[in-house]
Description:
This protein is α+β, with helices and mostly antiparallel strands and 274 residues long. The protein contains five helices and 13 strands. The strands form four sheets. It has a five-stranded antiparallel β-sheet with strand order 1-2-5-13-6. A four-stranded mixed β-sheet has the order 11-10-9-12, covered by helices on one side. A two-stranded antiparallel sheet has the order 3-4. A hairpin with a 5-residue loop joins strand 1 and strand 2. It is globular and about 60 Å long.
Amino acid sequence: MFVKSYLSIIAILMVLSGCSEKSSQSSIGLEPGDTMVDSIGMEFVWVPAGKFNMGSDTGAEIEKPVHEVVITKGFWIGKYEVTQEQYQKIMGKDPARSRLDHPADNVRRDDVLEFCKKLSDKEDVAYTLPTEAQWEYACRAGSDAKYCFGDSEDELGDYAWYDDNVVPTDLPPDSEGHARFIILTCPVGQKKPNKWGIHDMHGNVAEWTLDTFARDYENSSNIDPVGPKYYSGYVVRGGNIYLGPEISTATIRRMDLNSYYGTDLGFRVVRLID
């Protein structure tokens, strides 16, 4: 009896040891900017654990104060915003009105979480939205400036689609002969990436995050922070095609309700390590 119990304990310890070894080795050898592709063609970029200065002391009140944040675990983040083609492959429907290589927009947060769940089931790997801290950390890619590339607005057009460089699409005149136009999103990945190889975080569409919204960072944790436990809407990050340079920085944030959807809002996902 004692021998059986002893052997059972040894077996359990070996299993636990194997699981721990697998988990600890899953990120060994990865460098910032390394890439992988999943079964539906979504490309991911490796973001290492680390620390950074989050927020801005010169931006809006909801971006204050600047504070050091530690990200304790590395993660894979979408190289691009999720496209309409990828969204259709998982969800079987098209919520937007642009082409397949454009970001999936017009998506409520519940739709996005359902996408993550279905993709997780398909891949047998956990997919989710990035936390607000993960999003800004990945956007900055080591930069402490307003943008991932520096402080100059003059360079923003090289990295982002925003209101100054998106060309409106003409529509047929209305019944009275008045000219009409529409502003559409642009294909993902056409602008320069940040230092880690991640595209479109300063423009095209803003992006849902996992966090509930807090009006500032005063009571935020400094280690793997998440939003407050009370519900006050959800954090949306990044610029979009309707916004100017001052609202396209690495620290810009806003709150939207779960029910909101529009052509200005999409998402990218995080793939968690094994």
